[in-house]
From TrEMBL, chains A, B:
Belongs to the radical SAM superfamily. 7-carboxy-7-deazaguanine synthase family. Pfam families: Radical_SAM (PF04055). GO terms for biological process: tRNA queuosine(34) biosynthetic process. Binds 1 [4Fe-4S] cluster. The cluster is coordinated with 3 cysteines and an exchangeable S-adenosyl-L-methionine. This is 7-carboxy-7-deazaguanine synthase. Keywords: 4Fe-4S, Iron, Iron-sulfur, Lyase, Magnesium, Metal-binding, Queuosine biosynthesis, S-adenosyl-L-methionine. Its cofactor is Mg(2+); [4Fe-4S] cluster; S-adenosyl-L-methionine. The keyword Manganese does not apply. It comes from Shouchella lonarensis. Residues 23-235 form the Radical SAM core domain. [4Fe-4S] cluster binds at residues 36, 40, 43. Mg(2+) binds at residue 45. Catalyzes the complex heterocyclic radical-mediated conversion of 6-carboxy-5,6,7,8-tetrahydropterin (CPH4) to 7-carboxy-7-deazaguanine (CDG), a step common to the biosynthetic pathways of all 7-deazapurine-containing compounds. It catalyses: 6-carboxy-5,6,7,8-tetrahydropterin + H(+) = 7-carboxy-7-carbaguanine + NH4(+).
Amino acid sequence: MTGQKPIPVMEIFGPTIQGEGMVIGRKTMFVRTGGCDYRCRWCDSAFTWDGTGKSKPMVAEDIISKLDTLAAGRFDHVTLSGGNPALHAGIGDLIHKLHAKNIQAAVETQGTIWQDWLTHVDDVTISPKPPSSGMETDWKKLDTFMTKLSPQKTSLKVVIFNEEDYAFAKLVHMRYPHISFFLQVGNDDIHTTDDTTLLTQLRYHYEQLIEKVMLDSTLTNVRVLPQLHTWMWGNKRGV
Amino acid sequence: MTGQKPIPVMEIFGPTIQGEGMVIGRKTMFVRTGGCDYRCRWCDSAFTWDGTGKSKPMVAEDIISKLDTLAAGRFDHVTLSGGNPALHAGIGDLIHKLHAKNIQAAVETQGTIWQDWLTHVDDVTISPKPPSSGMETDWKKLDTFMTKLSPQKTSLKVVIFNEEDYAFAKLVHMRYPHISFFLQVGNDDIHTTDDTTLLTQLRYHYEQLIEKVMLDSTLTNVRVLPQLHTWMWGNKRGV
Ligand code: SF4
Ligand code: SF4
């Protein structure tokens, strides 16, 4: 194992569908890494960084054998999520080993930390965080991502909770108009277990967001999506 | 207008989101053409061919000016749906004129009738009809589509109502493994106005379909999606 950098892994599960963004509906496995350089107010994965969850250091082979234990032969796509997976240099080796087995890799990151292995990822979703998160975007860093990544394999996704977030989304899209752009409804009730009420709220917010975008002449080449997994399974983890 | 072939148009509406398939969530206008060479048992657009709706012959300019009346400056994508839009030679001219205005065009067809203008379409969804439709697939004709279309711009979508449909979906995917493949939950209650009950049913069927696909080692590089517009607006037309 010399030279291999372990990755702090919070959870591995699947196969399930990707509920969001550019490959919504895709059959995929999930590997969720620990640690984040952000502290978003509404983070739905705060257990990856607030001390309430515990990660396990795993090298690529460990992760792949865990994936195989869960679903050998039933998957060809793995989504690396966090936290911010781009904190971890060891993911480069994991992607390399997945590709050797004809398995694709997707990554979601907020676009704050560059890793060269990102150029090998099949679907990269960059999700700059809007004002409601309490975080601030470093546009120069984001520019680096957009310069280095291939547009065909990259998308931008902004989660919308309020008017300011919507204005921020426009800025992002106008700065990188050639990158596939997704607006996503924010989930502002990340702790409820009342799935029916949650779905009613999320549908309502989705309809409102659709209406707004449809009337907007500055947002044309865009996609507006819900989080399908939340519509299906509420705030439950590991589905 | 010499040489222009009018297209029988049933309805033009939007902008709204594309509720299905490869560009799910995309802001788009819809142009629905009249006439179909199929008679699917569960067709949700039977008014395009069963005599209950009335079409209007329109040439490309008419259609574009109607689109502009509805939403000038607020759209850059038009979805041509039916019926079977591939019945109409005149659509070639429409696509040409849309492209001249930097507007993309998507088409959905069952893959029975080839038109050379299909090679100019930005997103082509081929939806071969499963056994529950009562229709039979002409595989040779479908092969023509798959040979002539560019894989990057093409997807296959199969609607699933039952076990036989699921088996059919596998056949389609195995025959064209390099084409993006979507499984979609069928709506077997196309007349109800009880949106709440409909959503409960559709979610249940979607969850069942997801579970099935997740356990299936012959379906890995696939996407499983609902019809988002039906989840949002039930069986209402023109949204
Ligand atoms: S960037 Fe993502 S994981 Fe990190 S705090 Fe924000 S929402 Fe949570
Ligand atoms: S091919 Fe489409 S429009 Fe034609 S009958 Fe079947 S479902 Fe209806």
